[in-house]
Amino acid sequence: MFADIMKYKELLYFLVHKEVRIRYRNSLFGFLWTLLEPIGLMLIYTIVFGVILDGAGKNHLEAYPVFILIGLIPWTFFNNTIRRGTRALSGNSSLIKKVYFPREIFPITILLANLVNFVPAFLLVLVVGIFTPNLHLQFAQLLWLPGVIILQCLFTLACTFLVAVLNVYYRDVEFIVNLLLRGWMYLCPIIYPISRVMETKEIQEFTWLYFFNPMAIIISGYHGIFYPEEGLNHIPPSMIIYVIILTFFLLGVFWLIFKRLNRRVGEVI
Amino acid sequence: MEAIVVENLTKHFRKAYDKTLKGYFISLAKRENRYEEFVALHNVSFSVKKGESYAIIGKNGAGKSTLFKVLSGIIAPDQGHVQMNGKVAPLIELGAGLSRDLTGAENIRLNCAIFGLSRARIREVYDSIVEFSELEDFINTPVKFYSSGMKSRLGFSIAIHVDAEIILIDEVLAVGDKDFKKKCYAKMEELRNEGKTLVVVSHSLKPLRTICDRALLLEKGEVTDIGSIDEILDKYEQEKPKKKKKKEV
Q1: Looking at residue B203, which CATH number applies to its domain?
Q2: So what's the ipTM on this one?
């Protein structure tokens, strides 16, 4: 299956290139928006949750804005891929109606284009973190980073396959996805640390439920790089294995659904 | 060696009456059909030999375009079996697969990549595509500003350069000017001599006689006749005036 797609690597390269280039077409800041968007959100969250609600003091977090950025940038990667991915097929109807090539190419293109935006932005945050006083780079956690990114990519791809093909049949998917993503963000440790969910007495019995969200565990994989208390080594290993298995399971199932529904895409689009 | 084998191909289209949830429940409550079924192709079987030129003839709505889309893989058949032995380059409608916002040059790259050409190979064929299409002056203009003739020229030029073994051509040549048409027919002859398989749908019947070997006649989604090109075209042309007379009466 992958070999089939590798045959089209030139096409993939062309489409990713096009996607990256046209995203910020006619914008003054261009590629900088990859950073400006999360920085703007970081400012909002810092003011609301850090200052007004005193999230930083309550959770004993050093450099709260950096904490938010570390979680927010991977989340933006996930969020943008899925939102754009919903239109991956429906937005390319002119191409789909006229020539055939594996349609998996479209969701993969969206993922890769967003990955191209994500990696430099995250590297920049790493640099910021290194130069922030009181934050110490955890080298052991850094070794996990490539694995965490790959896991996130696979999980994102699985979700994108599903929403892309469903949106061809029912455009309602777009609206549902937007709403779901907003709620999903608050279910991830971005504005609060994951240790709070594990340690707050009132909600401790629901922690296992919280861990069903694979993105929560993936994002804490990023946090661990500077916040050892919030990293993967504080999460039950069984939950990490669960996330890995779930990701591959969903990738398989959603890919099958994609293939199945893809048969009529040429007619209904 | 067969290039294309089609066996008992059937394709139905569903036309939903009302796609909303409300409409769904209303028709569910009334126990009526939620969609109208339309038979586009019924039990179509034929085969095309390698190196053969094949024409598909039929009136509007006979199912030619549906058959083309099935052959090119855009639409999956409901029943039956389609086997294509070799790489297929479809040319459906004007400039198949051209993206409106991209320039001519980018479209050449995109389309070559769609057909699986490597970067080195794209560079090799790029110049001959531009040259054949005679679009040197407009190659950096977005395709949305092209006239229909220019689009079909670009589309045809790409399709013949992507190293496909089977080329599907659908009505594209109706818009090019006389000189370009001539050039295309000459090129099609050349491709035929090279041993490529051509499948053509066209309304201009005259050139079909020189290019094609065999033909298939479609009527309302069913194959009514298969035979040599002259035989089928004679029948098809005979049939036409008759129908006109009927209308006059």
Answers
A1: 3.40.50.300
A2: 0.80
